[in-house]
Design brief:
Length: 82
């Protein structure tokens, strides 16, 4: 079975990485508002990173390089989160 590699430009790669960093900053700010929110944010981030690793692994199994798989995973997570 052939797999079509997702076409993601360098600009989109940069944007996706910026959005990932923005997600981290926003969750930090949210957790800082109330001590009750800290464990919730920790769990949310753990789920986010675990999902990223699993999606990257999926794409690497399909033949993408680690860098391409990371970008593809961030694109998928961007669609889910935003």
């Amino acid at each position: 079975m052939s797999y079509d590699q997702p076409k993601i430009s360098a600009t989109e790669k940069t944007l996706l990485e910026t959005l990932r960093q923005q997600f981290i900053r926003q969750t930090d700010a949210w957790a800082a508002k109330d001590a009750y929110l800290y464990p919730i944010v920790t769990t949310l981030r753990l789920a986010f990173h675990q999902s990223q690793v699993r999606i990257e692994d999926y794409y690497m199994d399909k033949g993408l390089s680690a860098s391409e798989a990371r970008t593809a995973a961030l694109a998928v997570l961007h669609e889910i989160v935003y």
